[in-house]
Amino acid sequence: MATTIQTLTRTGSWFKPELRTKDYTSLGDVYEDSKYNELAAKKWNVEPQSKTDNYLKLVKQASQRKWIHLRLLADFMQIGRIPRDWAGLGSIPLAEREQAWRRTNICILDYHKDKKPAKRFVENHKGEGLTTEDLKSELRIGATEHASFRLYVVEDLSRNVIEALGSEFQISPEFFRAHIADYAWYNVRDRWREPQPLEVVRNQRNWFQIRYVTTRYFATKEKQAASVEGGGCFETALEEAKSFNIFRRPDDDKSRGWWDSEDAVVALTRSRATFWYRPKDSVNGTAIGVLLLDPTVSEGLPLWRGHRNFHPVPTTFEEFESDHSAWETSTYDKPQSFFEDFIYWAENPQVFSSRTDTPPEHTPILTLLHLVGAEWLTMCDYIKTRLNQVDLETVDPVHFAEKQHVDVALGKLHMWRRFIPLYREMISDTLQHVFDSPRSSCSGPMSSELASLSISGVTVATPGTTCPTNNSPQTAEKTNPTSHPGPVGDTSPGQGTLPTSEVHRGTNIKAASSSPSSIKAYEQDFRLVLKHLEEYQMRIDRLTSVVTAVMAVDDTRRAINDARNIGRLTWLATFFIPFSVVSGIFSMQDLSAIRLDTIWVYFATTLPLAIVTVAFAWALHSPVVRAWICRMW
């Protein structure tokens, strides 16, 4: 074990000293409200303006009452970003915080019937000049054109974006709270832990979240290294990630193999996509969706150059020439962020469904599941690659191991042993909260084509269709007695549906159809990814046993070699025993009596005696002699 630790330290451990701290005395833990209040008052507290900061005022008041898990959101809106160093917040200039408050990158997509989605950007990357009221005005432009569905796609988050969207659409603060940070686990003293809700509560939400992992290749790790074409610097990407408002961090997995470039890094980033939905109302007949996406670092390239082109492959040259513009994307000409990639494919919903009756509000979910599924498949291929490399390093470390140390392979396996259970949890959450919807029993002229949205027990379906639904998977065999189906847009009380405000508060978007164009069709792919991860976890357990056995064999082999060396030293010591005895006898006489003839007598005596001693020892070492001695005795 000591050898393993030394080897991991020598080859670059995953341990990062700057991330290990228990200095809760300077920032307060979850059990010390007085320390937290004192720190907040000194470092970042901002009094909300009555006209422009209503949402911040709501979040702060809620966080100071019984909803303490909203404290992180209140701190985020006041500070401007997730702090990496809570104790050093006092040194951040107010101008820098205001710039983080105003950072905006929003794309508005309006979906009309039989028309390509209309696109408009609201950008303010430098955070200059776009106030909350200006942002609200930008978000309202074109809202009266009666699009069937309007989607707001947000990259990163900022105080003004949260204020504008939250107050404009009455979005629950938990929606933004769930997106601003990503921690694999929490210490028992962390005050930023997000408590998990019960499933019965989760099923009443009108938003859900998908967690996934992205992979990115960097040609160099350190800034001092020479720039390599087609790559990037990992340390530069880390600094860029620190400039994001939300907390995301690319991590070096330390799994470099013999085939990799000497200084190359493959970084893994835990990511989130959070989608909020409000169905059509009687005011303008437009459904509203808000999708929060993670920012992407500009350094590096997607692993293996990213996912495949989702456009159908042309079968003839004439077809390619006639629709050449349809095949072109900038994915390979210029690396795209996940935000830009999503916008491109959300503008082309026909790629994911050839059906004309697919609801437009399904488009962002279909696009998101397609992109996230592609990321998971890439991740599965990457894990398989690394495990195969570890297998070869174990079988033939001389030719395939980078350092020719088998215990390095054990360190890599320990990393994946920690990662894969977390990835399985991500996939399981997606399967449970996106695909495992209440079963519907539909009847009507379009029941076989229906792709419904389950809204807190009320099914928003196409006109002429009645679909009793359930409120949770646990009660799939029972019909909700408090809600009744109704047609789309019919939200008046007493017509078999809940009032508009109640529907908005309890919307739960899940697919309830197995038709090829529906959300449910992607469940098979995600279950396949989960199956791959389960197989990889079992393979890691087997490889860990094999590597441990190989290390034990190597230790035994080294022990045998050490024993042989000690045996040789023993024979050498046996040979010099007569020299020591005779020299001890000679030392009893006066030194003046030692002459040249005395030295001759010394060697003439000791050399034959040494030969006889070695011969006698060799004879005793012989199995035949030892057997004869045993018979004699």
Strand percentage: 5-15%
Question: Count of DSSP helices?
Answer: 21
Class by SSE composition:
alpha+beta
Number of strands: 11
Major sheet: 8 strands, mixed
Shape: elongated
Keywords: Membrane, Transmembrane, Transmembrane helix
Biased composition (Polar residues): 462-483
Transmembrane segments: 569-587, 599-619
Region (Disordered): 462-515
Structural summary, described in words:
The chain is an alpha+beta fold and 633 residues long. The chain has two domains: 25-195 and 205-436 and 523-540, no CATH class; 576-632. Helices cover 44% and strands 11% of the residues. The chain is built from 21 helices and eleven strands. The protein has helices at 2-11, 33-43, 54-63, 71-79, 94-102, 132-140, 159-169, 173-177, 199-202, 234-242, 317-322, 324-327, 338-346, 363-395, 397-400, 406-435, 500-505, 523-575, 577-586, 596-621, 623-632, and strands spanning 104-111, 118-124, 149-155, 207-218, 251-252, 265-278, 287-293, 301-302, 453-455, 458-461, 486-487. The strands form two sheets. Strands 1, 2, 3, 4, 5, 6, 7 and 8 form an eight-stranded mixed β-sheet that branches. β9 (453-455) and β10 form a beta hairpin. α6 crosses α7. The two termini are 47 Å apart.
